[in-house]
Design a protein that fits this description.
The protein is mainly alpha-helical. It has helices at residues 27-41, 44-60, 65-88. The mean pLDDT is 84. This is DUF4190 domain-containing protein.
């Protein structure tokens, strides 16, 4: 019977390299897209929240962060313009 020393069996050998860290998802970018659409179509103030989410996505390095921020800003501005035009009519 082989002896494993005073600490028990050694850890099992893993022939595979460790997995690389997972890339950041696009959750904040997607939220920015959705809020930009809602801000444009329904409630322009939600577009401001979309801009915040887009900025957070850009800061986190999400792949779609820059696009999310741009679309959120455009959606928010167009939403405010559209609501101003509707009030004037």
């Amino acid at each position: 019977m082989p002896q494993n020393g005073p600490y028990g069996a050694p850890p099992p050998y893993n022939p595979y390299p460790p997995m690389p860290p997972k890339a950041a998802g696009n959750n904040f970018s997607i939220a920015a897209f959705v809020l930009a659409g809602v801000g444009f179509l329904l409630i322009p103030l939600l577009g401001v929240l979309g801009v915040v989410f887009g900025a957070v996505a850009l800061r986190r390095g999400e792949r779609l962060g820059k696009l999310g921020l741009i679309i959120a800003v455009v959606g928010t501005v167009l939403g405010f313009v559209a609501s101003a035009v509707v009030r004037l009519l």
